[in-house]
């Protein structure tokens, strides 16, 4: 005998919740369900391949909906925000005659921003004229990389320091650093653009001073030992391309007006290749081996002798 099971008093049916109204700003029409559940392998493959396209379309439209209300900044507002520091008025002109291995290659004429960068422009002008007791004359370019060339400037010791002392010149970079800080606040964008002239006043890679115990008047005191001296504000760089990485170390004091072809000739001089990727160099640098420091100073140094043969103020 067959027994029929019946559930007494079955629960009433609950209607499904009403779907929320469509978003007026963003709405994606979902695909209609298939009428039949019998899908072939090809149908399953086509449906699976269309899912990534649907998801990517969803997120791209959502991103456009989020970015739509962003405010637009006019060109005039952008210029005022960054400060037009790459095209400042030129108050003075100077020239540098350059030779490579004794062969003259041409003259570089630079314009100095004496009105907006008084300390930096004055420092460069006194070094090209010799008013500081020392000059860039017969001094070499010591570093050549694809984005800029760097001149060695004058030294803070030896004959250069003695000549500067006799002339009453100060090779410190305190005023230059203050001017660099003011420029950084005024111009948040790239300062070392193509053709700019800048003085090296800081060393961003300089490690903090080392602490050591010293005996003074019978007492032990903690003293700070300087790892290496700071730049004296006489080395200068000329940017070949926009070089934002120089903004942390150089103060832009002018720009090249004539002679970028000479700068290009200098940039093509062969140099000592970097070897920072070598594991031996990394270990030596990590343990503070002096040989690694000496080798690092020689990186990007030109094989040829690139010298400023003459310099001064231009008309």
Automatic annotation (TrEMBL):
One of its GO terms (cellular component) is chloroplast. It comes from the Eukaryota. Residues 95-313 form the PPIase cyclophilin-type domain. PROSITE patterns: CSA_PPIASE_2. It comes from Musa troglodytarum. GO terms for molecular function: peptidyl-prolyl cis-trans isomerase activity. Residues 8-23 have a biased composition (Pro residues). This is PPIase cyclophilin-type domain-containing protein. Residues 1-23 are annotated as: Disordered.
């Amino acid at each position: 005998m067959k027994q029929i099971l019946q559930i007494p008093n079955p629960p009433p049916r609950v209607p499904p919740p009403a779907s929320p109204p469509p978003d007026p700003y963003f709405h994606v029409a979902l695909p209609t369900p298939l009428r039949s559940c019998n899908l072939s392998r090809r149908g399953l493959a086509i449906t699976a391949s269309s899912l990534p396209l649907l998801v990517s379309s969803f997120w791209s439209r959502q991103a456009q909906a989020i970015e739509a209300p962003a405010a637009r900044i006019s060109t005039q507002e952008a210029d005022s925000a960054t400060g037009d520091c790459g095209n400042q008025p030129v108050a003075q002109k100077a020239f540098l005659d350059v030779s490579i291995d004794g062969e003259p290659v041409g003259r570089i004429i630079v314009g100095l921003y004496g009105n907006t960068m008084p300390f930096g422009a004055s420092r460069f002008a006194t070094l090209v004229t010799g008013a500081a007791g020392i000059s860039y004359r017969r001094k070499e370019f010591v570093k050549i990389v694809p984005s800029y060339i760097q001149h060695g400037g004058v030294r803070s010791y030896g004959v250069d320091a003695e000549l500067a002392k006799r002339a009453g010149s100060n090779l410190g970079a305190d005023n230059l650093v203050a001017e660099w800080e003011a420029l950084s606040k005024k111009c948040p964008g790239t300062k070392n653009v193509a053709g700019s002239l800048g003085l090296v006043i800081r060393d961003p890679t300089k490690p903090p001073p080392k602490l050591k115990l010293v005996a003074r008047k019978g007492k032990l005191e903690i003293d700070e030992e300087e790892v290496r001296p700071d730049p004296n504000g006489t080395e200068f760089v000329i940017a070949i391309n926009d070089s934002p990485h120089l903004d942390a170390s150089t103060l832009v004091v002018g720009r090249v007006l004539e002679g970028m072809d000479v700068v290009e000739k200098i940039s093509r001089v062969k140099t000592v290749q970097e070897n920072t990727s070598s594991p031996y160099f990394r270990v030596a640098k990590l343990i503070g081996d002096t040989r690694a420091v000496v080798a690092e100073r020689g990186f990007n140094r030109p094989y040829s002798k690139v010298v400023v043969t003459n310099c001064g103020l231009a008309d």
